[in-house]
Amino acid sequence: MRRILPFLITAALLAAACGRETRCYVPIGLTNFSIDPNSAYYPGLNYVGGYMYLTGGHRGVVVVRTSFDSFVAYERTCPADSTSAVAISDEYGSALLECPECHSLFIVEADGYPMEGSATACPLYQYGTTYSGGELWVY
After folding, report:
1. Residue 14 covered by a domain
2. Given Cys at both, which of 71, 80, 89, 111 links 119, Cβ 3.0 to 4.6 Å?
3. Range of the domain at 55
4. CB count, 10 Å around CB of 24?
5. What one-character DSSP code corresponds to residue 119?
6. Is residue 9 part of a domain?
7. pLDDT digit string (tens) for 3-44?
8. Is there a domain that residue 6 lies in?
């Protein structure tokens, strides 16, 4: 019995872990563009904490300036409701993105992961960003 017990415990833990597995699928579109975030064409990105909604992706891309030389870009498609586009939270500003349908809140500085109590455990899809020489690439 002592030899079988470790195997039974391992099998039980694996079965429990498989039941909790969350598969996240967020439709995304092609995104590959560059902008000058300090230009007059992108006034929402001229300051730290600023943001802008840009075309691309599936339901659009939201770019947030998190520091002088740091940006994040997220797909606006909500992982809980793919027919809805997340937006900057009216109540919390550029720190959180909110789905207008399911009211899930996603933390910008935490790689787009949802806050506890959201309708999904899946994060927003995060696009890659590179900022160099005054030019921001989103891909």
Report:
1. no
2. 80
3. 26-138
4. 12
5. S
6. no
7. 543 443 444 444 444 444 567 888 898 899 999 999 999 999
8. no
